[in-house]
Design a protein that fits this description.
The complex is a heterodimer.
Chain A: H1 4-13, H2 18-42, H3 45-61, H4 72-87, H5 96-108, H6 113-118, H7 120-131, H8 135-145, H9 151-158, H10 162-189
Chain B: H1 6-21, H2 30-82, H3 100-103, H4 110-117, H5 134-145, H6 148-165, H7 183-189
The chains are: A mainly alpha, B mainly alpha.
Chain lengths: 190, 190
Amino acid sequence: MIDAGQVILSESVSTTDASGDELEATVREQARLVYKIAYSVLRNHHDAEDVAQETFLRFLRHRKHWAEIRDRRAWLATVAWRVALDRKRMPAEVALEQAVEVVSKLRADGAPVDEIAASRQMMSLLERLVSSLPRDLGEALTLSATEELTSAEISQVLGIPEGSVRTRLLRARGILREKLAALLEHKHAR
Amino acid sequence: MRDDEPDSFVDELLEASLRQYRGEEPRSGLETRILAGVRTRARVARFRWLGWAAAVCAGILAVIALTLHFAPTRFRQPTSSASLPQPATTRPAPPMVSRAQPLLSPRRPAREVRRVAAPPSRPEQFPTPLVLTEQEKLLLTYLDKATEPDLVAGTSQTEEASFSDLEIPRIKIAGLEIKPLDDSQSEQEK
């Protein structure tokens, strides 16, 4: 069964050449991955879609070398990652004290962990903590958080061995946990 | 109690927050929007390329036009001086295509050599004078030798001779004769 999106895609691509067909197939397969990687860096729907378009435009411009690309998925992930990093702006300054206070209050009120985690303040707090990580650790954690890439693919994107990816992820999580615990316990001790 | 197990709470909160951190799913129609955006950008890029090409062509045409505009002014000076009245016996100088080149220093660029060699090929007088006939040559010789009184005397003698040679027949004028009107004819008319 063909859904509406597929019909629209087929109609729009029918007038293009063979590269257009291949582009359409690639977009269908990898659009979600590219978008998620862009979103993990930029934290914004509009910017993430813009980066996704830019990534596939570069892919189209690179069509003479498509045959040379061994792993198209990793290639697209790498391009999306670099384009997103180029567009990344400094995260907005979060009022750390205020965020910690709201999270502590939710905890004291007995709110479920998932509810606390979904709160805007907790997201802001986590973004602040991730951005405070060393760059290499933050990049590995950001790519891992998309849950779209395996360790091997993350290693291709970052250009490091797969073992280093695992090590960095462990270290990043450890640092995040320590910082979060320190913030919450400091607030709780008051 | 959560207060007794702060480590487990932080671990759970961190895991839940990282799950939230991966971001929301992309909005529906992502592939369609990406393809449309890629095509639009590719079209704009193509037009931008055409614009650059047009600008380069316009620049080349401008250079050619300027070259053509200034090049004739160098050659007009010899042409204008040649347009002054010249003696009829002078003939246009032969073209100096091959002879002019050795006079130039070898360091001069080839373009300069071509510019110097080209103008002498043009005739110095336009229209090119024809070869004089025998009668014209005799007339010029006579004019060179004869003084002004000779010319005046020759002219008056020629006029007198021409008048004396003329034979004008005498004009005969018949006498006027007026006949009286006939009465019979006048009566019939009545």
